[in-house]
Amino acid sequence: MDLDVRSDDNCHLWVEQAGAGPPLVLCHGGPGLWDYLDPVARLLQDHARIIRWDQRGCGRSQRLGPYSVARFVADLDAVRDQLAGPRMALLGHSWGAHLALRYTIEHPERVSHLIYVSGTGIDPDRGWHPHYERNLRLRLGRHLDRWEALNARTRTPAEDREQAVLQWSADFADHGTALEHAERMATPWLGINYDCNQAINAGVRHELTNAEVAERCRALDLPVLIIHGTEDIRPRWAVDSLHRALTNSQRLSLTGSGHLPWVENPHDFRQAVTTFLTHAADRPSGMG
């Protein structure tokens, strides 16, 4: 069911809700993309009421700035307030994992469980991006020349989609099906908001350098599940400091899967998340 949430500054946010049970809100990655987590919703909607949304300026939501981490946290709180109720579980993927973590730091009393999928951690000094860039080029293989040519020039909308599909194909472990999975992610094509991407990425870098995120993570007292695929081209060691900082977290590597582990290992992903939501200690945060 498609819904419309209005933020506190009257930005229209596209939202979809499915399933029944305790609310679980999904935060897609990007930044600057739209929600692609419908397969996650289908895997989990027998166990929770799944709420997914397009972030401000992205996909079916209104293209209205400003684009900042704080603004997106406020938008997520509007989704919670209008649809999820006083308390929700959160699942974030990639950049969305950071958004979910940042929301939890700001509003721990409003989060029952946090599921941090394929994030890149909180350590500003242990840069993961050069590692990612090397692995991206290796994984692209025979498509590298075309990707580099597209990346180096101003693109038409069709070329923009082609470049994204090639880049996203590197996020899957199985070369034989990678392009098919990436094409599915890009259908329908809703366009990338590059202004949003640049602003949010800069905001995250500034925040990790200046906001004492690790110290604030140590103050959290709620269950956290960290999931990543063993074949993700982003380094798994990037989340080491986050795992150490969280006092009530568990960490799981899903074999044979890349950056979107629910695509290539859906059975284990579903089992891990549903078990966590059902059995993890749901202790009140005690923080205001």
From TrEMBL:
Molecular-function GO terms, alphabetical: hydrolase activity
Keywords: Hydrolase
Domain AB hydrolase-1: 22-265
Short name of one Pfam family: Abhydrolase_1
PANTHER family: AB HYDROLASE SUPERFAMILY PROTEIN YCLE, MONOACYLGLYCEROL LIPASE
Protein family membership: Belongs to the peptidase S33 family.
Name of the protein in its database record: Alpha/beta hydrolase
